[in-house]
Amino acid sequence: MKLNKNGRESLLSVPSSPLDMPHIQPMRTYSNASSLRLNMGHDHDKDNGNVEEGLGYTHTLMYGRYTKDLGEFAKDEARKLKLLEKRRKQEDKQRNKELLGKRATRVKRISSWVWKHTLARLGEDWVFLALLGIIMALLSFIMDKGISICTNARIWLYRDLTSQPFIQYIAWVSLPVCLILFSAGFVHLIAPQSIGSGIPEMKTILRGVALKEYLTFKTLVAKVIGLTATLGSGMPLGKEGPFVHIASIVAQLLSKLVTSFQGIYENESRNSEMLAAACAVGVGSCFAAPVGGVLFSIEVTTTYFAVRNYWRGFFAAVCGATVFRLLAVWFQNADTVRALFLTNFTTEFPFDPQELFVFALIGFICGLGGASYVWVHRRYVLFMRSNKRMNKFLQKNRFLYPGFLALLVSSISFPLGTGQFLAGELSNHEQVTQLFSNFTWSRDDLTVEQAAIVTNWMTSYTSVFGNLICYTLFTFFVSIIASTIPVPSGMFIPVFKIGAGFGRLVGEFMAWWFPHGVRYGGRLSPIMPGGYAVVGAAAFSGSVTHTVSVAVIVFEMTGQITHVVPVMIAVLVANAVAALLQPSIYDSIILIKKLPYLPDLLPSSSGMYSIFVEDFMVRDVKYIWYGISYQKLKEVLKANKALRSLPLVDSPDNMILLGSVQRYELIKMIEKHIGREKRMEVAQKWQKEAEERAREEEKKKQEAELKMRRPSRFEVLPAPDILSLRQIANDEMLPPKKRVEALNNNLAPRKSILKKTNSFNLKTYAPTVQHSPNITPYTTITGNSEFRIRSAFEAIFKKSTTLQDVQPDPETGSISPAPSNTEVQVQRAPSTPGVSKKVQLPRERVIDMSPEDQKQWELEEMLKPIDLERAQVHIDPSPFQLVERTSILKVHSLFSMVGINHAYVTKIGRLVGVVGLKELRKAIEDINSNSFVVPPRDEEIHNKPSVEKPLLMPNASDKAVDMTVTSMDSALSNSDNCSDIELEHMKTEKTAIVTLPPQEPCGNTNSATDTSSDMGKHV
């Protein structure tokens, strides 16, 4: 509808009939091949009706009118089509996103070929593990170099500005604050998953739980750069935990690379084995302790360890530790491969047997201190979380908390202030090395080198004892506070320093108490405070982490095993005390973060044998069955995006478990059924069918026109040209029979000379039948002009409907259009024979469906049932399953040893539930806290008395008949309460039995039986 200048409706601009209204077809990059189906006429009428309804056509007295503007209607239709197109693209994008990474590319295939013919011949495991160790050694060395540069720059600024103390203070605190702020901001922007230690997360991942984006490349970048900046600031934090995380990320990335080579790393069990080896490499390359690193990683990250993976961890850890120490020789001017904290204790008489009691006492105190450390750390974190107002304020100002703590710690450790009591001018490595020194600090006859060391640990106000006490307490509390900064950081080095400071304090006290040594067997044994520091470091770190392998790490870090027995005694005592009081620091962080890790059952739990899997399983199981439709499957997958596999049953009624199917397989099946390749294949089929129908209609129309024509009484023949004469001559040379056949074939139907023009109809679709008008002598000038017009229109519509061939891409297997600039050889006019010319054809369009047709086609296809065998879906015929009466102790053992994430619960083969790590963990926590409530079980529900239902209601004429229905199985199962005569009667008589839920015992029911004849009489 248009408006004239006066604002009134202009009826002349609108067709007088809806049939004259043009069919609006928005411009698209596809052709409506699907619209040319058998019901073309019906669809056309329906489209006209939709147009009429959309334009708001109303009948008036004379002509009728349209109440809506044609442009607005076109915009609405275009908006609807755009919305349909957007939804389709979103669904395709979601399916392709889940299928991403599963399809091989050309680069991967080339890399696979190179891998198989080079490194794979040497042994894939060996090459992979050696490469992992070398990469981790390089990362550790580079990070240590960056940390050393930052620490030395801070000390250089402090020492070069000795004339101005205030500027010294600014230089001392500015660099740590800047580095901490940079680290906090960098990891928050790149990968927040890199914050913290990483060992609790790796413990959870190795347990079988997939944590989102914890093993990605961006997490690796954030972890490496953030940890370098954090440790370079001088904060009392470590790098052992983050290095375990870094090694695991490198192993995961290498596994993906090797998996793309189609090697041995395609299954998940092998991937977990490589992650376990990576944890050992992380510790080994961090402290140059391969043996202790393997044992420590086993103790920290796993509950049950497969011995077959032992050699993998040792080989990778040895490669990493060796390369790490060789890099120090090559680039740091080290004379040879040495231990990280080299000591030189005497080997003849390192300790007196009487000192073993003191070592055990150190272990006991360190056990108490380690438990206190874990408890204080957890309480501090929970306190910060519980204060919602402060928590909300700090979340809005993310840099305030890290900057404040960095400023506070740097101010306390300022050497001209309180830092003089804390050896604040020394780095972490220098502090541990001096604490392990094998001479007594409190004696008077010190050398120049020894006096320089003692100067760092005493002041004019305090002695060695006071400084060691301040150092231990400062590191204890400040490391707890600093570990809550949102940056990558570890906790092993801080607790190692706390133990070393406490052990050194006990050693100095023993040396002061026994200045000449301990007498045993007529011989004096001098006290070595450095040995006490080693024992204290091992005991305190072992009590915090609940590991015994720390002793082996200490032996490898110090390079001596003279104190094997004292270290082992102290570590065992400290572990025993700490295990009774608190969990390890890593388990405590798991509880704080609420990671889905499976806890251990307490020995005193009374419900270990009386609680079964049916008491805590999930009964609302999401499943698929044979014959499920694609639409139902799509709804199940869309509603349960977290499920990686779905159980397969025979039918929703029987629920017999037949196997399980991976989510990826199901999505791939849906994509194969309604994806782009299938859609374009169907569109191409529809196009061919439409062309065939158009050809048939054109042929029928021509035949009908020929039948309606009358033969002309006159025929004007043109003068034959040279080619015609040759053809006549050739025809005359043919036999008479063939000549007659040729003459009959050349006869054309006669046409009246009174007909001036050639009649034709202009259609929206021109078939691809190649035909040209016969140039006859009676074609007039008007006919030639109309033929030219017709030819022009046919060329336009033929160009608009000519469709590009759909060619499969040999690289990816997807359908792609043919090249647009196709060059063909076109023969010129007969006047210049033998001359050819290259003609560039215009770009043609790909066969595809319109959004409406695609939606209708997808709805029809999605309603079809799925044939899993024909779809070639991989079905796991033996998923892990439990019976409903499996005790929680067995379930916990199976989940822990096998490393599964979930198990299906069956009852006589029927799927009744599913149990996962989440449900099992919640049940164990409730059992350990004595708050688990056993729900009513199925057998208890079935054993409840049920109301008897009469089969037939007695009427007025037959009130004496009181028939009830009972179950034969129930009657026989309660035969103890029935008499022998009743049982014999029930067995011998022909009884009409209807099975119901179990009823009351036979003695308590009024059930009666009747014969078939009586039953028929009552019916």
**Shape category:** elongated
Characterize the biggest β-sheet.
4 strands, mixed
Output the CATH class name of the domain at 114-332.
Answer: Mainly Alpha
Quaternary state reads single chain
CATH topology of the domain at 114-332, anyone?
Clc chloride channel
What is the helix fraction of residues, given as a range? 40-55%
Q: Helix/strand-derived class?
A: alpha/beta
- Low-pLDDT parts are 1-52, 261-266, 746-783, 800-844, 944-1019
The spatial strand order of the largest sheet comes to 8-9-10-17
Do you know the CATH architecture of the domain at 114-332? Orthogonal Bundle
Structural account:
It is a multi-pass membrane protein. Keywords: CBS domain, Chloride, Chloride channel, Coiled coil, Ion channel, Ion transport, Membrane, Repeat, Transmembrane, Transmembrane helix, Transport, Voltage-gated channel. The protein is α/β, with parallel strands linked by helices and 1019 residues long. Among the domains are: 114-332, Orthogonal Bundle (Clc chloride channel), CATH 1.10.3080; 354-393 and 419-593, Clc chloride channel (Orthogonal Bundle), CATH 1.10.3080.10; 606-676 and 856-929, CBS-domain (Roll), CATH 3.10.580. The protein has 36 helices and 20 strands. The strands form eight sheets. A four-stranded mixed sheet has the order 8-9-10-17. The chain has a three-stranded parallel sheet with strand order 3-16-11. Strands 18-19-20 form a three-stranded mixed sheet. α6 packs across α22 (585-593) and α12 runs parallel beside α21.
